[in-house]
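seq as requested:
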Amino acid sequence: MNSIIKLINNQLSITEKSKNKKEKKCKSNKYEKLELSIQKIKKDNTIESNYFLKKNKFSTFIKDYNFINLQYIYTKFPQSIELVSEYDQNSVEIKAIVVDRLGRLYIAGSFNKIGDLVCNNIAMWDGNKWNRLGDGINSQIISLVVDSKNNLFVGGSFSGSGNQNLISSSSIIKWNGRKWESLDGGVNGNVNVISTLSNGLIVIGGSFTSSITSGTPLQKIAMWNGLNWINLGTDFLNNGNIYGLDIDSKNNIYVGGFNLPVSVLNMADNIWTILTDSNSNILDQIVNTVVINQQTGNPVFGGSFGNFGTVTGVFNAIEFNLSTNTWVSLNNPDGFGLDAQCFKLFYDKTNKRIIAGGIFDRLTNGTEDNTVLNKVAVWDGTYWRPLGSGINGNYVESFGILPDNTLFIGGNILGTNNIWSNGLVIYTNNYVNIWRKDKLIYTLTNFEKSITISNNCDSQYIFQKKM
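struct tokens:
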């Protein structure tokens, strides 16, 4: 049996052709401006479960118990990410994810094997397979960034590259695409976060006080000029540690962390300013993450904090409005915010939203809301929204997005309600599938909303929303 899918007078028409050449037609309701691109999928490119679904390049398994009106699919890589040691697999952490200008995906954290590939704490997905980066890194990685030349900078709590051909570079090291390079021997404390200035130079934040080889004094934040570390810190940072850092379009560097007030460095005049409102309210609780809201230009802070000074209704995430010099909690209009600690805030440029990860499970205003988040949520500027069914595991602490809008979620996680996936899961809303119980499969692209067509036909066709 074959199917012919046509657009007739703004209606979707599906014609079944059987072997005895009898035909029967099903028509959908009117569907305006529908544009279809149809591609037959071979049977060997599908997975048999309750339905046949198209495989994507990341997975040999895409399945959910109910795809009707569903706008997302979770998937996993075919190879399991493992930490082969005295610990069990629950010790795997994906603490950092970044995508370079060629669309290659880097993941890093605490793991040493993906499938049969030995890759100490870091690996690169080239679109078809995982690749090791030299001998990897000899201990935990916390942060990643790619510069304008596709050089990868890696920060964490390590002494250098892997067991063979050791390159000594404590807590910060560079991968130039072929080999590891030391950066003045590294620094003498953890590098918790890395970002880039508009000129391509990198800025690191953490717990360090000097470089290793030259002994340059540093105050928890520094810039690499290609040859040396340049101190960017100031005295009030000395007693604390930087956990979160982001840089806006004017090269203002916003930081937060432990035992220090959230602050900004204006690189144009090299002046530090503690963020405060007209009532002198300063956020000096634990800030794990900082992100620039690119719609407003304001810094947003996430962590483990509540009310401070006269600022109330604070639940672990807050924005500082630079125009009015006021603190604005990231809460729904009814006052509900994240019920527990936030580890990562990530700005999704394509969809113009902030994605949060952490240990939170629900919304709260002091009393728990019924909205289930499960470690991950989306802030759309007004409301916190669930991301699918959320994540199973202990916490989410990293995100990355490919050019095709596929979102990667990392942390100390075990997958979702429907998929087991150690350390890393994939959330995709750009796969559009039509499937039939008689195993004839098509893929559609370029349409705007979900429709289901049955109308007494032998087979049911489900059109999944494309973003």
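Residues 2-56+435-463 form one domain.
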